[in-house]
Structures are given as structure tokens and as C-alpha cells.
Amino acid sequence: MKERLRRLRKSEAIRDLVRETRLHIDELVYPVFIVEGENQRQKMDAMPGIYRFSVDTIGEEMDEITKLGINHIMIFGVPNHKDCFASEAYSKDGIVQRAVREIKKTHPHINVITDVCMCQYTDHGHCGILTDSGVVDNDKTIEYIAKIALSHVEAGADMVAPSDMMDGRIAKIREVLNENGYQSTPIMAYSAKYASNFYGPFREAAESAPAFGDRKTYQMDPANSDEAMRECRIDIEEGADIIMVKPALSYLDIIRRARDNFNMPIAAYNVSGEYSMIKNAVLSGLMKEEVIFESVLSIKRAGANIIITYFAKDIARKLLEDMSN
Ligand code: PBG
């Protein structure tokens, strides 16, 4: 028996032939941060290699990813103005709306997904409207979330991805999009989103750390797996077209359960902390660069069809290199 396993590892050609999992560029989504101002290409200490662009420089980044073969992006806005209603999030001339219009004009082939949430836009940094006692008012919040989603789609977004984790948001967004003639715009739901420490670098990048408290009342407890299945089921029933598990690397079991339980496209978000940890390990020489490919491949092997990852460009370069060898 052992001999048989070894026979299949004997040469590179045979290993290629029996390989079970392969990454493809078209299943990767590259997250993009947009800031106000002009001529911005801001470096971030927490995420080496990732920059924040202004609307006038985003085209250069789109040229670069186009050359690498990346066709899908997810946009995050970092606005200057914040208030208790997150009004910049649904403004016609908000940062995301302007960026979407610009990208769809100059790079119409790029599939633009927008993150729909309020935390970058509220002055307190929570993902919704607060009641007088300082807790998120779920039902009021979903009205706003739907309004934000609609404004993104009106600006030209190809798909919306609500990351707020409020109850009933998917049904509400679907209803509002349909009422406005956008029946064919899909929703990718952050369904199993955990209250994770791996979002640390993102909160620096998006300036969205909560001013008080945490997100544990609306994001999931890392200890729970059955609950993640309930979250996915509810989102599917409400009309989600794609369900997402987030983070990815510490939640590979959740991705696999979702894959086995639901006949749906499953996305996984390889988040900022996962990126920073591995990127820094590579930059400091602790691990070889191949660890990037290995870790992203594990997300695919666990069952994800779509991987949102800051490593998209690194992976794209490796795939191009492999092709030319
Ligand atoms: C906004 C949002 C977050 C991330 C994506 N959308 C942060 C959070 O919930 O605190 C995290 C992404 C990452 O860490 O890369 N709600």
C-alpha cells in the first residue's frame, strides 16, 4: 500500500497529475481601501504591501491587477466625515460611490463588490445606529444598511457584501434592491462572521475600531460552530446568493461544514491579521514565501469557492510564474 502512495509522488509530473486542489485567479477577490484626497498612495505599517488609494490614483492599481489577471475587487471606504447616522456611507458622492463610478468607467471589466457596513462611517465605530443606552438598534440599522447597499448599486457596484451581521439585513437589502429594479444584483452575505482579533490591522487601515465596547453582541463567538450553520441557513433563506465565512485560517472547519451542508457558493475572507502575520514572517525571513501559497490553498481545500485575500497579487504573480515555467 505504501509503495502505491510513493509511486504517485515519484516525479513532479505525476504529482501534478494527481493534485487535488488548485488555485485559480478567477476565484480570488482583492480588497481595496479608498481614502479621501488626491494623489494618495498611503502605506500601512500594519499591512506591508497594502496601500490606501484616493479616487484619482485607483486607476493605476486597477491597471496593475489587470496585468496580473485579477478581475474581482472588494471596496472599503475610509471617509473623512463620520457621524451617528453614517451619512457618508449612503451619500451619492460618498467615497465608495465615487470610487465605484470611476472604476466602472475606466476598467469596466473589473467586477466590483462593495463592503456594506457602517463602522467606518459612524463616529463611535459600531456597525449600526445606537439607541440612547448605547446598544445597536438592529431594526433601525437594517433600514440604513439597505440604503447603503442601494447607493452602491446605483453607483455601479456589481455585487454587495453586507458585513454588519444585523438580523434580517439580507431580506431587507433584497427587498430594497428589487423595488428599485436591481433584481439581478447578487448579495454576498458575511454569514458566519466571528468577533475576531484577526481584524486588528484592518481596523487601523479602515480607521474603524469601536470607540467603546466590542462587537460581541453582533459578531459570533469563536467557540461556536453549530451557530455558524444557523447563521448561514438564515441568510440563504433570506436570499443570500453567496455565503461567507470570516476569518478563514482559524475557521477552516467552519468553511468545510458550510461546504458539506449547503449547496451554495462559499466565500472565505482571509482577513488582515492573517495577512499581516504571514507577510511579516516572510519579510523577516522566518518562513519562505511559499507559505503564502500554502495557506491560501488550505482555504480552497477546506471548501471555499471564493477567497477574499490581500495576497491576491502575490498569488497571481506565482500563478503567472508557474505558467511560464
Ligand atoms: C466591517 C468589516 C471588518 C472587516 C471587513 N469588514 C472589520 C470588523 O468587523 O471589525 C475585517 C476585514 C479584515 O480584517 O481584513 N464591518
What does this structure look like?
- The chain is of the alpha/beta class.
- The chain has one domain (23-324): TIM Barrel (Alpha-Beta Barrel).
- It has 13 helices and ten strands.
- Strands 1, 2, 3, 4, 5, 6, 7, 8, 9 and 10 form a ten-stranded mixed beta sheet that branches.
- Strand 8 (242-246), helix 10 and strand 9 form a beta-alpha-beta unit.
- It is globular, with a radius of gyration of 20 Å.
- The protein starts with a helix and ends with a helix.
- The mean pLDDT is 95.
- Bound molecules: ligand PBG.
Short description:
The chain has 325 residues and is an alpha/beta fold. The chain has helices spanning 2-7, 12-18, 58-68, 87-90, 95-106, 138-155, 169-179, 200-205, 226-238, 252-261, 272-283, 290-302, 312-324, and strands at 28-35, 41-43, 51-54, 72-78, 111-116, 159-162, 188-193, 242-246, 266-270, 306-309. α6 (138-155) links the parallel β5 and β6 (159-162).
Helix and strand sequence: HHEEEHEHHEHEHEHHEHEHHEH
Uncertain parts:
none
Mean pLDDT: 95
> Under the CATH scheme, which class?
Alpha Beta
N- to C-terminal separation? Answer: 33 Å
Tell me, briefly, the overall form: globular
Strand content: 15-25%
The class by helix and strand makeup works out as alpha/beta
Number of helices: 13
Helix fraction bin: 40-55%
The counted number of beta strands is 10
Gyration radius from CA atoms, angstroms: 20 Å
Largest sheet: 10 strands, mixed
CATH fold-level name: TIM Barrel
User: What is the count of structural domains?
Assistant: 1
